[in-house]
Sequence to fold (378 residues):
Amino acid sequence: MTIPLSILDLAPISAGSTPQQAIRNTIDLARQAEKLGYHRFWVAEHHFVRVASAAPATLIGLIAAATEAIRVGSAAVQLGHHTSISVVEAFGTIDALYPGRLDLGLGRSGQRAEQVRSAGVPPVPAPERPTEVRDGVVLPPPFYPGQLLDFTRVKAALETLHLPGAQPLPYTEQVGEILALLDGTYVTPEGVELHAVPGEGAAVQPWLFGSSGGESAQLAGRSGLPFAANYHVSPGTIVETVEAYRAAFRPSPRFPRPYLVVSADVVVAEDDAAARRLAASYGHWVYSIRSGAGAADYLDPDTAPPLSDQQRRLVDDRVTTQFVGSPATVAERLDALRKLTGADEILVTSVAFDHTDRVNSHRLLAREWGLTPQVRAA
Fold:
């Protein structure tokens, strides 16, 4: 293949394992990814759930220390949960020791969740459109936050994440603050110049992330920033998302043209049947998220009970758009996604019960994609 391949790791916790082991697994996977020739290694941000990526800046620092050259970053820091200066100082601190390797991905899930907490549960749009297969890519009906079964834990988590009385800045405003702090041009509304130390002048590349054609995609385009479109989170909106980014794009000094990364969930094994077995408990994991309880321990596919019809309906869009199969099968489907979206880079995430299976999934895909393994000097 002709475009880079990168990894998004969620630091999943398998049933019977621990967060400590999940973090060790993520560090090991980052080392393996570098050797295999992956371009970037990103981690997500999740709180009060059974994945070990609650502190992305800390985890990124550990990954940077454990690797040599692979780019590392966040996918993404949820701005509703952080002040602008805390984000810039954290990434500036890591950049001080590992300059030029950091990607600062910024997401607005924190702001969206805050809207849920303050305004109630959003309605489910109707009617739904049918599933479409376009140029070999499955485009299911979009999933909307109002379809979550229970918001009790979501609201409780948000109350705990925020200081009493604190309100997140509007997403566009906070992105502007972060860019200004990095550039050394930040001035308060009262006209006071403030400088992030460390952080100002850091060789950190900002990214925006999005799952729709709304604010994130349009802001990334207007700002001349690279953009990551989340097919793995919201497969039903991928086309409108990438179209909105390109339509809004204005050239910047570093990016004279749009630069688009598209994500996908993958499970690769030696053959299609083996991969399907490894992915058999993926629907259970997605259901734990969409039930409102948050990501649970990842179940052993050999012992997980079957999903009910109701559970399957809630997760069908994610299960049918997971890329599962042999290296050739998955590479062919990823290439179809590349062609449909015009992606400059593909970002894959792979969740499996056994860490060795997850590493093997990335190894098999790297070989099929034609990545060049990195050989360290003796």
